[in-house]
Amino acid sequence: MLESLGITEVDIDRASREGKSGGEAVIQLNSYPVCPDPDRAMGLAAHTDSSLLTILHQNKTSGLQIFKKGTGWLTVQPQTGVLVVNIGDLMHILSNGLYPTVLHRALVNGKQQRISVAYIYGPPANVHISPLPKLVDHYHLCLYRPVTWSEYLELKSKHFRDTLSVIRIAGTPNVF
Ligand SMILES: O=C(O)CCC(=O)C(=O)O
Ligand SMILES: [Fe+2]
């Protein structure tokens, strides 16, 4: 993925010498009990993850949905041996919007309990994340100011889904 953004092994070596490599992760366990009236309840409200990437395992009960512009909510059916990888807000910033963060939610099920395990991966909490210099030029303005994961989480607790707009420094979206 980093390779597709033009990041080479030399860049990664340099970052590790500067102490910027590695990352932090948390595992979140989600349990959605059987719901007698699933059309009138929501398991997890629509949100984007604040991570770089989230790797998600879901049990055999469906419920995860992602929002696709122009189409609406799409169910991501669980498949044995398949993990879902969600792009998070920090990857959105790092890629200068090239890899957009994904809006998703979890529905409840009327017949079966649903369980999911999210591996939420991000940078060390105090490392500044900003659009990669290789992705910024005369035609592709730098869209976001630098932010650490901890600062971003604090902003998100106040601004929720508007947080990316809050740290945005350029007006018009880039066309890739
Ligand atoms: O339960 C799911 O499928 C989604 C979980 C999720 O979005 C999260 O833990 O951030
Ligand atoms: Fe999520």
From TrEMBL:
Pfam family, one: 2OG-FeII_Oxy
Source organism, top-level taxon: Eukaryota
Positions of the Fe2OG dioxygenase domain: 23-123
Signal sequence interval, chain numbering: none
InterPro entries from the UniProt entry: IPNS-like_FE2OG_OXY, IPNS-like_sf, Iron_ascorbate_oxido_reductase, Oxoglu/Fe-dep_dioxygenase_dom
SUPFAM superfamilies named among the record's database cross-references: Clavaminate synthase-like (SSF51197)
Record-given protein name: Gibberellin 3-beta-dioxygenase 1
Lineage: Eukaryota, Viridiplantae, Streptophyta, Embryophyta, Tracheophyta
